[in-house]
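Researcher: Let's try something more involved. This one mixes different molecule types, so please make sure each is placed in the same coordinate frame as the others.
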Amino acid sequence: MKIKPLLPLLLFLLSFLFLSCQREQKAAQNTNSIQIKGSDTIVNLVQVWAERFVAENPDDYIGVTGGGSGTGFAALMNKTCDIAMASRKIEDSEIQEANRNGVFPFEFTVGFDGLAILVHKTNPIEQLTMEQLRDIFMGNVQNWKELGGADLKIVILSRESNSGTHLFFKEQVLRRGDAKAKEEFAPQALLMPSSKAILDEISQNPNAVGYVGMGFSNENVKTIKVASRGSLNFILPTAENVLTWAYPISRPLYLYTNGDPQNLVKRFIDYALSDKGQRIVIETYFVPIRKL
Amino acid sequence: MAGEFRKTADNLIEKIIFLCGILSIVFVSLIFIFLFKEGISFFTDFSIFKFIGGRFWYPTSSPPQFGILSLIVGSIFVTAGACIIAVPIGIMTALYISEVAPKWARDILKSLVELMAAVPSVVIGFIGMVTLVPLVKTVFNAPTGLTAFSGSVVLAFMAMPTIVTISEDAIRSVPWQYKEGALALGATKWQTIRRIVLKAAMPGIIAAIMLGIGRVIGETMAVMMVTGNAAQIPNSIFEPVRTMTATIAAEMGETVKGGVHYRGLFAIGLVLFTITFLVNFIADLFLGRSKK
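Model: All components are placed in one shared frame. Result:
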């Protein structure tokens, strides 16, 4: 008699085991459900795409999660997502790693983005050259005084190393566009878990400087004008300046699929590249791939 | 017949209890084996001395650098700070609850301390980020409030319940004859507490501190939110640091299963496991002694 209560419990636990197995199989078979994972930079954009797309196709299910470009590539390789969003190009070593896992990354450029350099509102600095930015983020310049600002220690804010924004900024600014160079962020740079965290810290800290995708910038912080290498034409990251490549810290945004896209994956990517999808790119403060 | 059944039932229950009893041992060994298996292969690619003694943690650069000295120092700074704050307050709270407080205050305090243990760490981290971080910046005039000190304060809150409840148990289990004897010899209440109660309960209190440390060193979420995550060796407690736990949590998502970075993070886990194991082991030694 005493064993009886244990039996339902055991069955209950076993059923969980079965359910979890079944669900995994379902995700693989069901073409009406896809998972998208990757860059926090464009997660808002892809989220809006997914919402509008599902509103038009109520039978489809699209899950969108962030985590960083590297996270997205890792998920694509581990086959836990169908589309990886990225704010940087996939690296050769990652392609090889993917091929070894039987995954063949296929690239789509879906928009453009500029990285805004942000400081506190009270910071008197208005503009910086690419070399000055490099000095700041590598720790060669440690006080705002040296750049004509107040006598305050510079606090560098960067994203985590799994962020495509982090890698892009490193390559474009620190390594002067040479991917094979060895420059690194100063060890004292704070690695913030999200663009939101960078914005929050800058809006309350007069010492801080950081970078975020131009879509994240808001009125609580000041955006710095930046000049390209060898020029003294300081400009802001606007849609126009990014599309004409005049703004020096601009980059394409990508979606990656495993092989030639099929079914829902293909329909979703077509939607993203359509005029409708590209208008959403503008809506979320990014730059479309063509003039609309 | 009925007797037969009772016998089998008895036997069965005994077996089940035995199984549950050794389950935790099985789990701990399985966790350790898994950790060891994933972590140890890292050292075939990367020297263990460079790993523990290296100052630079650049896991995604090429070639990557996996030096965790700054992470170990970060963990130690935060943990030591938390102990300096939590240990005196915790022991005094325990003394107050068990020796001084009137019954009504004791009941309220005890349940409140236990409630403190139930607050999720992410909530404590969030409150710390919003209230403590700006406060630390202004009070200590630091370049940023995201410092080791902020992490210590937040962790002190989380270690306190462990320290208070276990040392209170130890203090209460001091035989009343000791106290009566001291009081009968003309000692004041404070003299009795200091010379007799504290001394007799000391092994238990040390065990409480050790368990508190174990909790603190393994804490992740709250620390990640308030310490700034800069992988540098700090000069003072008012500089940003990066702990081992925060590194694993922040970077695990980006890694490819089986890759060097993935195994490097497991190697950090191995170091962390060794440290907490040692701390718990020492705590057990003291707890064992207090029983005698």
